[in-house]
């Protein structure tokens, strides 16, 4: 079993104002189905009202993330699934519920995690 990250940036969600309640309902329903299927690990949305902090190895920190990287925002879910095909199926379900494409990535195996 591998863990998959299913995510989207905030800008991908172009939803008419009157549809937000349906998007919330539908996306939460897919997450509940993932929990019932035993594949849900965790998920949520990045709180964009809290700025990132870049922390150095010595513990010093500065406001903001990497200046050269695109901002990390939007929503994500981590699911533990037996196959890439099944992960694509779950990503498609979330894409339909969220009304936007989802990016699918697999985490590298770490025997210590």
From TrEMBL:
Domain of life assignment: Bacteria
Name the UniProt record assigns to this protein: YCII-related domain protein
Organism from which the protein derives: Caulifigura coniformis
